[in-house]
Design a protein that fits this description.
Elements: H1 3-8, E1 34-36, E2 39-51, E3 57-64, E4 69-74, E5 79-82, H2 89-96, H3 110-116, E6 123-135, H4 141-148
Antiparallel strand pairs: 1-2, 2-3, 2-6, 3-4, 4-5
């Protein structure tokens, strides 16, 4: 399925409209889906979640703005998907467009709030990497992203 076909079927959310002459979404996120025939590469941001006091890792999280997907994979294997209202996505995308490697994710950031919520007083969120996740069909994006959200202990 091409990007256009997926968009017409409603599998791809519409792009935010331009407001006041400025793009509502940072240019770094406007690259859109990389459509290579039937295979689509979705860009994902991965984060480590650990206890602040002990630095013990407890989860890893994955955010994919193109698929409106957020999930946390806890150390015990549980997968918690996060659902964010469409009104919050532009702010989340603004934060993802920043140089996350330059400084720790702020506990007051939208990224931290979405991933750990009220546990932000106990847990720290650290950026790991941006990487593509390949999806054969857009209908399979959620299950492929679930599989890509994995917990791995640092060596």
């Amino acid at each position: 399925m091409t990007f256009g076909q997926a968009k017409r079927k409603g599998l791809i959310p519409p792009r935010p409209h331009l407001s006041r002459g400025r793009a509502a979404v940072p240019l770094v996120l406007r690259r859109g889906l990389l459509d290579t025939g039937r295979v689509v590469a979705l860009r994902t941001w991965t984060f480590a979640i650990s206890f602040i006091q002990s630095s013990t890792p407890v989860a890893q999280a994955l955010i994919c703005p193109e698929a409106r997907y957020i999930a946390v994979r806890w150390q015990d294997g549980r997968l918690d998907r996060r659902h964010v209202s469409s009104a919050l996505w532009p702010g989340l995308e603004q934060e993802l467009a920043q140089d996350l490697a330059a400084k720790p994710v702020s506990r007051s950031s939208l990224i931290s709030t979405v991933l750990v919520g009220s546990m932000g007083a106990l847990m720290a969120v650290s950026f790991l990497e941006i990487h593509p996740v390949t999806v054969g069909r857009m209908e399979d994006a959620e299950s492929v992203l679930d599989a890509a959200t994995r917990f791995s202990q640092p060596v």
